[in-house]
Amino acid sequence: MAAAEKNNPSKLDGLRNILCDWEPRLLMQQFHPGEKAVFAGVYKVVHGSNHELPHYVTVLRGDTFPVCAGCGRHVIFEIAISATRLHAHAQFQHTALPTDDDPN
Ligand SMILES: [Zn+2]
Asked: Which residue has the higher pLDDT, 101 or 71?
């Protein structure tokens, strides 16, 4: 890692570090078609026989990972960034936008 990169990590690196501190085993975990997503977030998709370049998809908690139209069950999903649903986060539960009458 370059010195400049080390002193000024990107936002993505910061998120990876948070995930790593939170649940390191997830960084190595791969999911296959038919398995359910334990966490919502962005997953890297790696296709069998490289019939398509790796890419990223968003997945909701509880989603079942599908088979691929091109490589069937030979597709792998790796969690890249875990994310919480907006209204499930503690800071946004039971909140609403202020009205014009609200002094705040
Ligand atoms: Zn595929």
From this structure: 71
In a domain, 89, yes or no: no
Residue 98, in any domain of the structure:
no
Q: What's the gap in Å between 67 CA and the centre of ligand 1?
A: 8
Mean pLDDT of 17-28: 53
Domain that holds residue 46: 26-84
* Residue 2 near residue 8 (C-beta atoms within 8 A): no
53 alpha carbon to ligand 1 midpoint, in Å? 9
Distance (angstroms) between ligand 1 centre and the Cα of 33 equals: 11
Residue 5 has pLDDT above 70, yes or no: no
Question: Could you read off the pLDDT of 62-98 as tens digits, one per residue?
Answer: 999 999 999 999 999 999 998 888 888 888 888 888 8
Q: How far is the CA of 77 from the centre of ligand 1 (A)?
A: 11
Query: Structural domain tally of the chain?
Result: 1
The number of beta carbons lying within 10 Å of the beta carbon of residue 97 is 5
Could you give the residue ranges of the DSSP H alpha helices within 42-102?
Answer: none
Identity at 51, one-letter amino acid code? H
